[in-house]
Amino acid sequence: MHMDEIKGELASIISAVKARIDLEKRFGVDTVTLTKSDVGANGCPPGKAVKTSGDRTSMSEKEKKIKLLEDIKNEMLACHKCTLGKTRTNLVFGVGDPMASLMFVGEAPGRDEDLQGEPFVGRAGQLLTKIIEAIGLKRSDVYIANVLKCRPPENRNPLPEEIVLCMPYLIKQIEIIQPKVLCALGTFAAQTLLNTKAPVGTLRGKFHEYEGTPMMVTYHPAYLLRNPNDKAKVWDDMKKVRDFLGELSGKDSKI
Ligand code: URA
After folding, report:
1. Which atom of ligand 1 is closest in space to residue 220's alpha carbon?
2. Whole-number Å distance between alpha carbons of 219 and 144
3. Distance in angstroms (rounded) separating the CA atoms of residues 126 and 128
4. Model confidence, pTM
5. Which of 91, 105, 107, 148 best tests ligand 1's pocket when mutated (most atoms within 8 Å of CB)?
6. Which residues contact 62 (CB under 8 A, 6 or more apart)?
7. pLDDT at 44 exceeding the cut of 50
8. With respect to CATH, is domain 59-251 assigned 3.10.450.350?
9. Is 109:146 a contact under the CB 8 Å cutoff?
10. pLDDT per residue over 113-135, tens digit each?
């Protein structure tokens, strides 16, 4: 391995460790151990780890992403960092186009998602699918993931330590997919990705930034099921996402 590659790997490891410590501090967790999975294959965050090695160079960009996502999913299948791995029926890793320009991030799987192993397939999921279609896309055009990949029992809120332990996986998913726009659905996704305690009502409707990627915040579809009067606000937020992607498509032809 060349000196430059070693330096690159070290820089990636240091940045992964810093990100993890920051996350732990934010959630007041002081007893989490850093594992190999927190820095990814070869010590590099996935998505940046596919440089020159053998068969990967002949893969298309999409195939590389599929492979990297598959690797993380397999790693997660054996994850017992928290207790949710014991109570879940299925891991709910993520679904959609690994080349997607738009990636949604929700909170955690519910009962239907736990049974089917796919995010947003219950009532809230059906509403999310309608929201996606309302901006002229298909569900299969976007990527959908959650902060937590295992269902919290009785659909309780995610615990701070569960978020800290599961976040590295979401961070890797985002690094691999490299969406042009993120959309955080609800309080947990928004506050976790933006490192804030601000309420979703004040965060929504604006583009924020997650690690350089524009991120819209909007209400969670499950909230909308309980508060249908706020659908108009989500529609406003999603029109901004649609227009933003539309402007981008003028520059490159992805969407
Ligand atoms: N709510 C979420 O946040 N995620 C799902 O996958 C389903 C419901």
Report:
1. 3
2. 15
3. 5
4. 0.81
5. 107
6. 98, 99
7. no
8. no
9. yes
10. 999 999 999 999 999 999 999 99
